[in-house]
Amino acid sequence: QVQLVESGGGSVQSGGSLRLSCVASGFSYRRPFMSWFRQAPGKEREGVATIDTDGSTGYADSVKGRFTISQDSAKNTLYLQMNSLKPEDTAMYYCAAGYYGGSYYGLIASNVDYWGKGTLVTISS
Questions:
Q1: Spatial distance between the Cα atoms of 96 and 79, rounded to a whole number of angstroms
Q2: Which residue, among 5, 19, 9, has the nearest Cα to 96 in the 3D structure?
Q3: Distance between CA 60 and CA 40 in Å, rounded?
Q4: Low-confidence ranges of the chain (pLDDT < 70)
Q5: What was the pLDDT predicted at 31?
Q6: Element (H or E) spanning 122, and its range?
Q7: Residue pLDDT, tens place only, 27-51
Q8: Number of C-alpha atoms within 13 angstroms, CB side, residue 16?
Q9: 123 in helix, strand or coil?
Q10: CA torsion through residues 67, 70, 76, 77, sign
Q11: Mean pLDDT value across the chain
């Protein structure tokens, strides 16, 4: 079965950087799009960044220019490089995958078929 396992979360000060990783396994018949979502306490889950099977990417406006999504297909690993972190970036970050994505649709939670369990990112001011 499909598994998505995140790592790399932690606590850093405002302005710092973190890199999240997600190891994916179990995709047997076609490649999915991959995304990162986040959910802060009391808020809805929101799409942060997505990468489609053709390599096209999409980002939420709030992270454009600061976050970069990438993947290493040989390692079945998805990454999210987060720079210039702000306290408002504090959230649980989830790796996600689905089969009907794109630079826009990959940021919509209802298009996701699989979720990881999340990794916590805390940014202090």
A1: 12
A2: 5
A3: 15
A4: none
A5: 83
A6: strand 119-124
A7: 877 889 999 999 999 999 999 999 9
A8: 15
A9: strand
A10: negative
A11: 95
Contact of 34 with 94, CB cutoff 8 Å? no
* Owner of token pair 């993947």: 71
- For the beta sheet containing 18-25, the strands, ordered from the edge strand earlier in sequence to the opposite edge, are 3-7, 18-25, 77-82, 67-72
Structure tokens belonging to residue 39: 């959910």
- DSSP string for residues in 56-78: -EEE-TTTTTTEEEEEEGGGTEE
| Total H helices, total E strands in the chain | 0, 11
Number of residues assigned to the chain: 125
Closest CA to 103 of 43, 61, 44, 42: 61
Q: Which of 20, 37, 12 is nearest to 81 (CA)?
A: 20
Q: In terms of DSSP bridges, do strands 10-13 and 119-124 run parallel, antiparallel, or are they unpaired?
A: parallel
